[in-house]
Design a protein that fits this description.
Helix content is about 15%, strand content about 25%. It has about 60 residues and is an alpha+beta fold. This is DUF7836 domain-containing protein.
């Protein structure tokens, strides 16, 4: 079985990375960019709508 992942992109510094949904907080919680420390809801860091849906469905 393949492990699911979510692609993330910081809206401020444009750093992109991937993470598994289990390693992330709820999409409604505040998340901090590991690069520039920008703070926003995790949903705002998801790269696409599909990434957001994956995150929601696996949490």
């Amino acid at each position: 079985m393949k492990e699911a992942y979510v692609r993330l992109l910081c809206p401020e510094c444009t750093k992109g990375w991937e993470s598994t949904p289990n390693d992330l907080p709820s999409h409604k919680r505040t998340f901090h960019c590991p690069n520039c420390h920008a703070s926003r809801r995790l949903a705002e860091f998801t790269r696409t709508d599909r990434d957001l849906e994956t995150l929601k469905s696996l949490q």
